[in-house]
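Email to the structure team, subject: Membrane protein involved in the export of O-antigen and teichoic acid model.

Hi all, the expression group asked for a predicted structure before they design truncation constructs. Nothing fancy, just the tokens so they can compare against earlier work. One-line instruction: predict Membrane protein involved in the export of O-antigen and teichoic acid, return tokens.
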Amino acid sequence: MDSPQNCRNAGANQFGAAIKVNTGFRVRVVTQVFSGDGLLARAMRSSALTVAGFGGSQVLRLASNLVLARLLFPEAFGIMAIVSVIIQGLMQFSDVGVSPAIMQSKRGDDPDFLNTAWTIQMMRGLGLWLAACALAWPVAQIYDAPLLLQLLPVAGLSLLITGFNPTRLDSAKRHLRFGRVTAIDFAVQIAGILAAVGLAWWLQSVWALVISGLVSALVGLVLYWVFLPGLRNRIMWEKPAAQELVTFGKWIFLSTICGFLFNQADKLILGKYLSFSVFGVYNIGFFLASFPMLLGNMLTWRLLIPIYRELPPGESPENFAKLRQMRFAVSLALLALAALFALLGGWLVGVMYDDRYEMAGAVVVMMAIMQIPQIIVMTYDQASLAAGDSRRFFILTLAKAVVMIAALILGLEWGGLMGALISYGVAMLFAYPVVVWLARRMRAWDPLHDALMALVGLGIGVLAIKVNLDAVSELARASGW
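Reply from the structure team: attached below.
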């Protein structure tokens, strides 16, 4: 008969062996999930790279923002916000949908199609720079800032530069291959940050931010051409390809105009209502609170068109179930990140910035809360683009833009800056029926997901306001409440 000690040793050995087997099994499962060339493997790798790239990018972005906030003055961030919104507006007002067209088209790997797309993109870049030059004087008059007359033509050169970016960047996105793209994006960001900090120390002017943008564009252009594999583009005009791009892109063109108005209406309108100093403080707060939305937009833009294309939700219950799992995972992760900023916004600003930016803490809290409705529904937008239905996507973005502009104006008139922040969330509530309409058309609507995430979001909002009540009350009083 075995002794009690021998029995214990045998049991321990068996337990250890079981742990080894279980651990080995888990390692194999994880390896299988992330390896291979299937949709799940590519999506998992792309998600991991996107999240890792976004996290690293935001750390660098935050570090540079902290340094620049000490080297420059709040008015510089206000003026640069106007420059940025005009440049982004030009990009979106002229977007003909080249990138999503390449991602969803059956001809997305055809050299003639890609070369025609690149030719259109290059012509667009030249036109955008000329438009930036033409807009400089009227924008300077509208915002009563003569410096914009000089800043906009120089900043617009970045549009000319990026117009020469190769289509191999879009091909990498089409096939969910983001390894080199993420590495290059890191290099581009580091180059821009180093240029911005060095120039800010030397010039002590908003020019540092403008010139660093050109540095980033040039570095990106060179690295995309040298290090991304794929077609070496040349000027070409194939009529069928151009017709497909224009047909698909006409609704994208209108959609991006509306998308710009939805996403940038706050800066366009608040930049006129507020002083550049207060507007600069608002942008610091928005910069911090926007992390969850930026990550969500990046994930949905990069992943959902290929996933919806290969797993149409209306094709089978299995596809819908897989998309539901993905949707819950994305929404919960983004809501957790939004909760972090909503709860700790005031503390973060107090730790990282000086007293000039104190009010930005309450802005972080309120903006993080008011972005929750948009986070909940953001996984629906790309379903129509994946199906090639850019018209319905335009209708959705138009509805969101209209309600956002109306809500911001009414919010400002009713409650100043605090009213504008609240209107950000209210606008998405009014746009929700249109979101449901599009999602149902694509057979992608998931009411269970929306209801559960709304309850989670409501809990986050109530708790965040309770924790930061003093800062929120101070912002309300400063807004004339």
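The first helix runs from residue 4 to 34. Residues 15 and 359 are 57 Å apart (CA to CA). Ping us if the truncation boundaries need rechecking.
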